[in-house]
From TrEMBL:
Superkingdom of this protein's organism: Bacteria
Coiled coil: 174-208
Membrane-traversing stretches: 29-46, 412-434
Organism the protein comes from: Thalassospira xiamenensis
Keyword flag Coiled coil: yes
InterPro entries linked to this entry: Bact_polysacc_biosynth/exp, P-loop_NTPase, Wzc-like_C
Keywords: ATP-binding, Coiled coil, Membrane, Nucleotide-binding, Transmembrane, Transmembrane helix
Name the UniProt record assigns to this protein: Capsular exopolysaccharide family
């Protein structure tokens, strides 16, 4: 099929939404081919897909029971636990047993897997993957759904799972009540036995020791408890005093002593410290105003020393008080501990029997209270077990799905048609996009109205070699030499400017190869890198000057030119670093002509590496200053619209490219290339 010449016009190829329909009509062949291909693939795949049905049920939980751990913020956590239990192994294993009895098969049976642990785990995993459990809003209701390729089977599976969960939950809760009742009954029997033994011990003790007044023992115990509290307070005071005494011993300066709370909170120290701060501020203010030898400064300095001495004395006095406080705290602690020990000894000696009686009375009371509590709990558990009600209610039974879930086959066919349309449109646009690329079809001169000067081969293409590249560049150099003779300027070098429409088309490589060809032919050649925004970076960092300085008039061209001793090499001049946009354009406008005039008297050929025409306006300035203008196109990369826009911009500036150079063409064997290769390898 031929599309390039029949469908492509010479107008601007930027598409609008209206142009899209025209492009698709022009590319109707590839559009229809892709559309039909996608539909054929869909026709092969859709019949293999089976519809899926979903059965749904709703389960509600009762939350107003005392034994339910769901109140306030615990509702969500309780529901999460219930949802996890519903998809647990115990529930699903019970449901699988029910389903096997009804002849429902979850997954296709594998020979030898029945009764095997791995096979059972596989079936459990398949069943769990079909179950979905979600909470409905903020209510204590969950929605359980099961998907299957058979509508009736999805309902059976869901009923089996819900029945298994309800039975397991009821059984677990009843079993928990029975276990609690049994445990409480055993505890009640043990508590009654302990109570009987405690009452017997109390009766025996009273018969042997007589009756002891309980109030006297209580008062002595209260006094001991009071002394214990006072002793604890005295111990904390003693520890605090010891810490302050240790801190006082470790303090190496007055400032360290001032950091201690007892010293800092001392009334005299606090007053002298404030007075010292005030005098020191006054001293600092007068020192800045008068200097150290002023009479006022001398008086204030003496006052500062006096206050500092008084403060130090007060701090030392307060520090001594810390030692006194430690001795007082130790003495207070010893006194209280002695009193407490005396009371304990009195209580032990005089009221040993009373303490025994009180202990037995308390033991009897505790045993009786424990027995009463356990009896009440046992009665409540028996009532709860007799009137047991489940905390789960099935609000909506498992439904029988009437329609399959998305995607149905109708949905799949609609999606396939949409995908086919999209793929067809994309294929048409891609074909249209790639048809805009420049090809080596021999029609470049007719398409753009500019002669084709040379074709340079792609480096990694077949038959590509140094000979073929040199042959192409040499042919271009011959054409430029012919132009130089027809456009001769006495005493001035011929200037060739190599440009391109967009970056990446190979203009910089061609400029270097062309400069090398001129230098090899014995012509004194210089390569001028005119792309100040993105220089090639060949300029030496150690040079005194560069092209930017030469254009600005801040350096000489001799310092900016980079030369090699090899006569077959070309000289180079360029920028060492990038130059901002508007500044680079201003430099070229003001200094390019002077630089070229100066270089024109020293060289035979000047090759300019220009920035892309469509990127910056610098390319127009460089092209306008050249004698020969070449526009580089790259096969398969350059777009016709870009080339037309570049030529239009040049034409708008009154410039016409002299020729085109097509780069990255498919390699062709060079004339005499085999002999040349053998000569190179010899």
């Amino acid at each position: 099929m031929r599309h390039s010449d029949q469908l492509q016009t010479d107008k601007d190829t930027d598409l609008t939404l209206i142009d899209l329909f025209a492009v698709l009509w022009q590319r109707r062949g590839i559009v229809m081919l892709v559309f039909v291909a996608v539909l054929m693939v869909a026709a092969a795949l859709i019949p293999r897909l089976m519809p899926t049905y979903r059965s749904v049920a709703e389960i509600a939980f009762v939350i107003d029971r005392e034994d339910a751990p769901i109140n306030g913020g615990g509702v969500a956590q309780h529901l999460e636990t219930a949802m996890t239990e519903l998809r647990g192994n115990e529930v699903l294993a019970t449901a699988l047993s029910v389903l096997r009895g009804e002849g429902v098969q979850i997954v296709p049976a594998i020979e030898g897997s029945e009764g095997n642990e791995a096979g059972d785990n596989r079936v459990l995993g398949a069943l769990r993957s079909r179950i979905e459990v979600v909470r409905i809003g903020n209510a204590s209701v969950i929605e359980v759904s099961v998907t299957d390729h058979d509508a009736a089977q999805s309902q059976k599976i869901l009923n089996a799972v819900i029945d298994s969960y309800l039975w397991q939950r009821e059984s677990t809760r009843k079993q928990g009540l029975r276990a609690r009742l049994m445990e409480t009954s055993e505890q009640l029997l043990a508590a009654n036995a302990k109570l009987a033994q405690a009452e017997t011990d109390l009766s025996v003790w009273q018969q042997q020791a007589g009756f002891i007044e309980p109030d006297e023992s209580r008062l002595m115990l209260d006094r001991i408890y009071q002394l214990n509290g006072m002793l604890e307070v005295a111990r904390r005071d003693l520890e605090r005093a010891r810490l302050m005494a240790d801190a006082r011993k470790n303090a190496q300066s007055i400032d360290a002593l001032l950091a201690l709370p007892p010293i800092a909170n001392n009334e005299t120290v606090r007053r002298l410290s404030g007075q010292y701060d005030e005098v020191r501020r006054n001293h600092a203010a007068l020192d800045q105003r008068y200097g150290p030898k002023h009479p006022a400064m001398i008086a204030v300095h003496r006052e500062l020393e006096t206050v500092q001495r008084h403060l130090r004395d007060a701090v030392l006095v307060a520090a001594e008080k810390i030692a006194l406080d430690l001795r007082d705290a130790q003495k207070q602690y010893d006194v209280i501990r002695s009193q407490r020990d005396d009371w304990q000894e009195k209580l032990t000696v005089r009221h040993e029997k009373a303490q025994g009686q009180a202990a037995l009375l308390r033991a009897v009371e505790l045993m009786r209270s424990e027995a009463d509590t356990l009896g009440t709990t046992e009665q409540e558990l028996r009532i709860a077990l007799a009137a047991f009600q489940s905390d789960v209610t099935v609000m909506q039974a498992a439904s029988l799905p009437e329609t399959a879930e998305f995607p149905t086959r109708r949905d799949l066919w609609m999606a396939a048609v949409l995908v086919a349309l999209f793929a067809a449109v994309v294929a048409g646009m891609l074909r249209h996009y790639f048809d805009q690329a420049i090809h080596d079809d021999g029609k470049l001169e007719d398409r753009f109205g500019i002669p084709l000067y040379a074709r340079t081969p792609q480096v990694d293409a077949p038959f590509a070699s140094a000979v073929s590249m040199e042959e192409a560049v040499g042919h271009l150099a011959v054409l430029i030499n012919i132009l130089a003779k027809t456009r001769v300027h006495a005493g001035r070098a011929h200037v060739s400017c190599i440009g391109s429409a967009v970056p990446g088309e190979g203009k910089s490589r061609l400029a270097r190869d062309l400069a090398t060809s001129f230098a090899t032919a014995g012509m004194k050649t210089i390569l001028l890198d005119g792309d100040l925004r993105h220089p090639a970076g060949f300029a030496r960092v150690g040079n005194v000057s560069d092209l930017t300085a030469a254009l600005a008039g801040e350096g000489t061209l001799e310092d900016a030119i980079q030369s090699w001793e090899d006569r077959e090499s070309f000289d180079y001049i360029g920028a060492r670093a990038s130059v901002p946009g508007s500044f680079a354009t201003g430099l070229l406008q003001n200094g390019l002509r002077d630089v070229l005039d100066h270089l024109g008297g020293r060289y035979d050929r000047i090759v300019i590496d220009s920035p892309p025409v469509l990127s910056v306006a610098d390319a127009i300035l460089l092209m306008g200053a050249a004698d020969a203008r070449l526009l580089v196109l790259r096969r398969g990369y350059s777009k016709r619209s870009d080339v037309r826009d570049a030529i239009s911009q040049l034409n708008a500036a009154g410039l016409v490219p002299d020729g085109l150079v097509l780069a990255a063409t498919r390699g062709r064997p060079a004339y005499g290339g085999d002999n040349a290769d053998r000569a190179e390898n010899a």
